[in-house]
Write a structure and sequence with these properties.
Blueprint: E1 14-19, H1 30-46, E2 49-56, E3 60-67, H2 72-91, E4 104-107, H3 113-122, H4 124-127, H5 142-145, H6 158-161, H7 167-179, H8 184-196, H9 203-213
Antiparallel strand pairs: 1-3, 1-4, 2-3
Helix pairs in contact: 1-2
């Protein structure tokens, strides 16, 4: 089956994930994480992409970002990916592919879902059993969104800014939000959307995306249509 094209819309947040080929390790040490983060900062700024939340795991990357034009995220990910593969292969004296083909992405509705993605991304190390608190994991944006650390890589989304009037109050509100976790139903929705590349949001949002892009935002039902009988 041919792969469906990605859907990008300027000004609409996206959840992006890039995995290592066969889930192999992509980050071996802190130098590797730092190299990727530096290129991500460089190319996100070069191509007009705002990174709201991010986490670098040992074998994959999650981003929540918004681009100023429809090509920004693709060219950013291609540029970061190429630079990092060259670095990784040179450092570890290897050759060949590192990433699992093209990155995956889906559009995200701002109401309700953007802040859910913030938490989903930054709580990834906790769900993986690597740390007890997101504050204990170095390679994510939680230190910026939850603790107030400055970073040129992380730019707050309007939904995050709307949580409170001051930075200190927003950070406290965000820490409280993260402590509540994410429901199993929402985890299923997030993972299904990124796997299929279809929009994460309510029915109205999905219909808007379908109308603007000309691409359906629901999985087709498998099996024989109702009313049809199998041939002998």
């Amino acid at each position: 089956m041919a792969r469906l094209p990605r859907v990008h819309l300027a000004g609409v947040p996206e959840h992006v994930i890039q995995r290592g080929n066969n889930r192999q390790v992509c980050f071996v040490c802190d130098d590797d994480f730092a190299a990727y983060a530096n290129w991500l900062k460089e190319y996100s700024q070069a191509y007009g992409v705002h990174i709201h939340a991010w986490v670098l795991m040992t074998n994959h990357v999650h981003l929540l970002c918004t681009a100023s034009d429809s090509s920004g995220i693709s060219v950013m990910m291609q540029s970061v990916g190429r630079q990092y593969v060259r670095y990784f292969n040179r450092t570890y004296q290897r050759s060949g592919t590192l990433w699992e083909g093209r990155f995956k992405s889906c559009l995200v509705q701002e109401e309700r879902y953007v802040m859910m993605l913030y938490r989903y991304i930054e709580l990834n190390p906790v769900r993986a059993g690597m740390v007890l608190s997101p504050a204990d994991y170095k390679w994510s944006s939680y230190a910026m969104n939850g603790l107030g650390k400055h970073s040129d890589l992380c730019q707050a989304h309007a939904c995050y800014l709307a949580m409170a009037d001051t930075a200190v109050e927003r950070q406290q509100a965000y820490r409280d939000l993260c402590s509540s976790g994410i429901s199993d139903d929402m985890l299923v929705d997030i993972r299904s959307s990124i796997k299929s590349g279809m929009a994460l949001g309510n029915e109205r949002f999905k219909q808007e995306v379908a109308t603007l892009t000309g691409r359906r935002q629901h999985l087709e039902q498998r099996g024989r249509p109702k009313g049809k009988k199998a041939r002998d």
